[in-house]
Amino acid sequence: MPDEVEIEGAGRVTTSLVEWVAKKVNRSPRNYDKVWVVFDRDDFESFDEAISVAEHNGFHAAWSNEAFEYWLCLYLGRYDSALSRDDWVGILDAAFKKAGRGGFEKNREDVFSVLAELGDHEMAKRHARNVREQYGRRGRPSRCNPCTTVDLLVHQLESALKG
Q1: Peptide bond preceding 2: is omega within 30 degrees of 0, i.e. cis?
Q2: Which of 45, 53, 90, 146 has the fewest CB atoms within 10 Å of its CB?
Q3: Per residue of the chain (163 residues), what is the pLDDT tens digit?
Q4: Cβ atoms within 10 Å of 122's Cβ, excluding its own
Q5: Angle made by CA atoms 83, 14, 21, in degrees to the nearest 5
Q6: Are 79 and 146 in contact (CB under 8 A)?
Q7: Which residue in 156, 149, 159, 91 sits closest to 119, CA to CA?
């Protein structure tokens, strides 16, 4: 039987998201093999704590510092500068418009197909890994900016879908 993937949006942030997921998992009759929580830093001071709490609960954290849009920009190239969410959105918006694909919106259903036209999925994963490795184990995730671990979740999903 292939792996099952359940995705649920919670509309919560950092530690409250992790606590919500822990309650959901603990109350569920299902046995979850792997649980991922996905969030970005934005301006939340509890970012490092949320990652720590997730790991303490046996979950994996797919995080981006500062914004999820950073992961999407890695399809276009390697970025090493700490920018705001608005800056990352601006980079994506300009790339989408230049390609004649309208403006970028996070909830566009075709965002990944447009990114595949503009860039490269495997390259994005390599860039994410390389940027993360440049920080090494020097510090807390909040100090690794820009950085993301979304590529680790993507790898897990790709493995599950192949299974």
Answers
A1: no
A2: 45
A3: 345 667 777 666 678 888 888 998 989 888 888 999 999 997 677 899 999 999 999 999 999 999 999 999 999 999 999 999 999 999 999 999 999 999 999 889 999 999 999 998 999 999 999 999 999 876 789 999 999 999 999 999 888 877 6
A4: 9
A5: 140
A6: yes
A7: 91
Q: How far apart, in whole angstroms, are the C-alpha atoms of residue 24 and residue 9?
A: 12
CA pair distance 56, 60, nearest whole angstrom: 10
The pTM score is: 0.89
Closest of 115, 150, 134 to residue 41, by C-alpha: 150
75: its two tokens: 């399809």
Query: CB neighbours of 157 closer than 8 A, spacing ≥ 6?
Result: 5
- Tokens 């993360």, residue located: 132
